[in-house]
Design a protein that fits this description.
207 residues, alpha+beta, 434 Repressor (Amino-terminal Domain), 2 domains, six-stranded antiparallel sheet, four-stranded antiparallel sheet, 5 helices, 10 strands
Length: 207
């Protein structure tokens, strides 16, 4: 993930280089990390920030420097603006710009998943906008036990493989399958495919 985040002027900084940030900062970092299914160690490797520091940030036990926030936001493919934005009381809960929505890319570079779900709910439900070029393959490791994925095809034709079982779905169809087993989505059509994906984490149906 190489998109550089836009810088935001820090209105409050300590003289030692630490920023006085909202308690929501740690929660936001943790939710983004979970949305990407990253461990603390994996985020540490991608950002260059020590695992222990990330853990302290997520627990709101330390105030990170702006440089640390920048490295974490870059590794999480988002902007400093989005990471530092604090909540305000309003009937409108949240609005995300296109540039602020994190995007996952498959290993072959042919599939993308934009994280369009609410980050506050990633422990229960994860919502993605999935797109794949012809021949694109998205391999996924098992999610937490009891997870159920719901894939609804808006365009094209996809094949879903789940631990030895496979099924083909076309435009207008929805497939629900176990997300707690190794699974793979392949665009078997001649053109691009587009689908929405909702992962119900630890679904009561499967527990």
């Amino acid at each position: 993930m190489s998109r550089p985040p836009r810088r935001k002027n820090a209105s409050s900084k300590k003289s030692d280089g630490e920023g006085a940030y909202s308690p929501e900062l740690g929660k936001t970092i943790q939710r983004l990390r979970k949305a990407y299914n990253l461990s603390l160690g994996e985020l540490s490797d991608q950002s260059g920030v020590a695992k222990s520091i990330i853990s302290q940030i997520e627990r709101n036990e330390t105030n990170p420097t702006l440089a640390t926030v920048w490295r974490l936001s870059k590794a999480l493919d988002t902007t400093i603006d989005q990471v530092l934005t604090s909540e305000e009381h309003s009937n409108i809960i949240e609005k995300s710009s296109v540039s602020a929505i994190p995007v996952l890319t498959s290993e072959d570079g042919l599939c993308t998943m934009a994280i369009i779900g609410w980050l506050k709910t990633v422990d229960w439900v994860q919502w993605y906008d999935f797109k794949a070029q012809a021949g694109g393959v998205l391999e996924s490791d098992p999610h937490p036990k009891g997870s159920v994925e719901n894939l609804s095809v808006l365009q094209g034709e996809l094949e879903v493989w789940v631990d030895g079982d496979s099924n083909t779905i076309k435009q207008g169809e929805t497939l629900r399958y176990r997300g707690d087993l190794p699974h793979r989505i392949t665009n078997i059509g001649d053109g691009p495919a587009h689908a929405t994906m909702v992962n119900l984490v630890k679904s009561s149906v499967m527990t």
